[in-house]
User: Which sequence fits this backbone?
């Protein structure tokens, strides 16, 4: 697996269909991106993320260049902590350990290239599959915020997870 910067004109059409229902979409992005995903809105949100937080989008590919995953990464210079956002794996590739592999590479990049002391991410408490994936990489729960997000008649908690440089 390899990581490279996300290229809108090459990669958007590959990832836009990875989410096929509004609940999964909300779990992925907390509805910060419109559903269904459209190129113009996606580009606008990525630009706003870059302007506001310094966030950059990346894709994970196999050795032949096939896009397998997507995430955004930023470093908060005031705390020297990296943050991962908008993490997703192609649903046809889930259950193969690719999410863990992508996150290990992202954490390695954070520690070795951006020199972050720790990496954080947020996940909804109800998203147990994602939480287990993150725990498998070494992320531990730092804080849980109950009732942080409402989706239809549900109330989801937000779980902050962190992995620290050894």
Assistant:
């Amino acid at each position: 697996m390899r990581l490279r910067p996300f290229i809108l004109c090459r990669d958007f059409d590959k990832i836009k269909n990875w989410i096929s229902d509004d609940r999964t979409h909300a779990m992925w992005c907390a509805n910060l991106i419109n559903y269904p995903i459209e190129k113009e809105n996606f580009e606008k949100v990525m630009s706003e993320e870059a302007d506001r937080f310094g966030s950059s989008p990346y894709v994970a590919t196999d050795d032949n260049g096939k896009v397998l995953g997507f995430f955004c990464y930023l470093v908060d210079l005031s705390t020297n902590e990296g943050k991962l956002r908008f993490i997703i794996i192609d649903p046809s590739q889930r259950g193969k350990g690719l999410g863990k592999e992508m996150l290990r590479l992202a954490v390695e990049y954070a520690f070795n290239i951006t020199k972050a002391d720790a990496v954080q991410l947020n996940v909804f408490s109800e998203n147990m599959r994602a939480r287990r994936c993150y725990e498998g990489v070494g992320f531990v729960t730092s804080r849980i915020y109950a009732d942080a997000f409402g989706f239809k008649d549900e109330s989801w908690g937000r779980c902050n997870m962190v992995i620290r440089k050894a």
Observations:
- The two ends are 23 Å apart (CA to CA).
